[in-house]
């Protein structure tokens, strides 16, 4: 049975472009949308597209400082660096009409949130979104405006009392955490590579929220080398119990696929098949804990041909309630498009050939296992704040 899905999309979303040498190339989104179209992901009658408008200044000010917004506009015109705002760094180069491009991504995420909140659809997706690092007053980690935080802030403005945010990007969702660190209406959960080995160097288990929101920032910092069974063990040990207790009105999720073994910027070793298991679990949790209200965002992912298009096509198919058979061959028309567009060899099928299984954490804690230690540190730090026994 398909789920009603609204897809926030405009071809101009690929204008968020830091230049040809930058790892966050918009071709990854272009190839994703092309693959999803060829696979028929958008053809079901329950799937429709949302028109996208840029977020205006008043909307952006829900999470960003007015001075920073003006700095982004200025830098996109002068193309000059602006050091106080981290604009013009190697991570965040300035580019023409930068404000327009970033505001459009933010507007797309708010459009997705609006569709879900207003009951137009159960689920909505902005695959170009998930720019979770941007801070209130400066750019950070390839992110100019924080569309994920903006979508959440918009939901709060509409009267939402409980919004859960789950971030499965390999990097800590630091910007979103920062913006809601002392707000108990927002539960932020981030599973990511340890700050000891990866940008941004935050996201430790003891970062649990401000004095008015202790336990509402949740961080699972996983060691380099974490694979599918380890990741799934950690996910299921932390995320479902907290969402079931919190009972969000809306679930917002960020799906950076840079946890994959082929990603050039990080050190986890998940497969496409392990990532699919996470999408399935979040879909079920959206139904179980948030009455199906689910806002889905993209995020990181820097293996532009082999990983991102396949991962996010699986994601959108799952969100639509019509999961793709992982044994499917990639369409020949898409392969030819990849060769023409990038010069790279395209993947031939929609699987990495894995069948990941995991042992539930509840079956026993191994103190010699660094993943188990990470899980236990998080559970001990936050579960008691929610009345949950971390040892059960």
From TrEMBL:
Name of a matching Pfam family: Hist_deacetyl
SUPFAM superfamilies given in the database record: Arginase/deacetylase (SSF52768)
All residue ranges annotated as the Histone deacetylase domain in the record: 22-317
Transmembrane segments: none
Ribosomal protein among keywords: no
Keywords: Acetoin catabolism
InterPro entries: AcuC (IPR003085), HDACs (IPR000286), His_deacetylse_dom (IPR023801), His_deacetylse_dom_sf (IPR037138), Ureohydrolase_dom_sf (IPR023696)
Pathway recorded for this protein: Ketone degradation; acetoin degradation
Top-rank lineage group of the source organism: Bacteria
Annotated PANTHER family: HISTONE DEACETYLASE HDAC1 (PTHR10625:SF10), HISTONE DEACETYLASE HDAC1-RELATED (PTHR10625)
Family assignment from sequence similarity: Belongs to the histone deacetylase family.
Identification of the protein by name: Acetoin utilization protein AcuC
């Amino acid at each position: 049975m398909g789920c009603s899905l609204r897809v926030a999309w405009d071809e101009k979303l690929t204008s968020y472009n830091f230049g040809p040498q930058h790892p966050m190339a918009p071709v990854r989104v272009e190839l994703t949308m092309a693959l999803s179209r060829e696979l028929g992901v958008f053809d079901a009658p329950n799937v429709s597209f949302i028109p996208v408008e840029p977020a205006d200044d008043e909307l952006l000010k829900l999470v960003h400082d007015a001075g920073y917004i003006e700095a982004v506009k200025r830098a996109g015109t002068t193309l000059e660096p602006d050091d106080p705002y981290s604009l013009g760094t190697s991570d965040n180069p300035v580019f023409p009409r930068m404000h327009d491009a970033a505001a459009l991504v933010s507007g797309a995420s708010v459009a997705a949130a609006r569709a879900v909140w207003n009951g137009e659809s159960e689920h909505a997706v902005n695959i170009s979104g998930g720019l979770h690092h941007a801070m209130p007053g400066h750019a950070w980690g390839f992110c100019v405006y924080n569309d994920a935080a903006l979508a959440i802030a918009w939901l709060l403005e509409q009267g939402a009392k409980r919004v859960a945010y789950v971030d499965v990007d390999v990097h800590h969702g630091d910007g979103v955490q920062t913006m809601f660190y002392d707000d108990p209406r927002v539960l932020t959960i981030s599973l990511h590579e340890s700050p000891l080995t990866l940008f941004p160097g935050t996201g430790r288990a003891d970062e649990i929220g401000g004095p008015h929101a202790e336990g509402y920032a949740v961080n699972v910092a996983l060691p380099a080398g974490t694979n599918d069974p380890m990741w799934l063990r950690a996910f299921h040990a932390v995320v479902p119990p907290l969402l079931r207790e919190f009972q969000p009105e809306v679930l917002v999720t960020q799906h950076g696929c840079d946890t994959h073994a082929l990603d050039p910027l990080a050190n986890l070793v998940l497969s496409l098949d392990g990532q699919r298991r996470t999408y399935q679990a979040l879909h079920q949790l959206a139904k179980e804990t948030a009455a199906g209200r689910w806002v889905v965002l993209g995020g990181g992912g820097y293996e532009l041909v082999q990983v991102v298009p396949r991962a996010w096509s699986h994601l959108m198919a799952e969100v639509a309630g019509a999961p793709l058979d992982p044994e499917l061959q990639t369409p020949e028309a898409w392969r030819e498009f990849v060769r023409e567009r990038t010069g790279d060899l395209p993947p031939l099928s929609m699987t990495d050939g894995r069948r990941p299984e995991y042992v539930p954490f509840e079956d026993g804690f191994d103190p010699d296992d660094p993943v188990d230690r990470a899980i236990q540190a998080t559970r001990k730090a936050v579960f008691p704040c929610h009345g949950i026994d971390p040892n059960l």
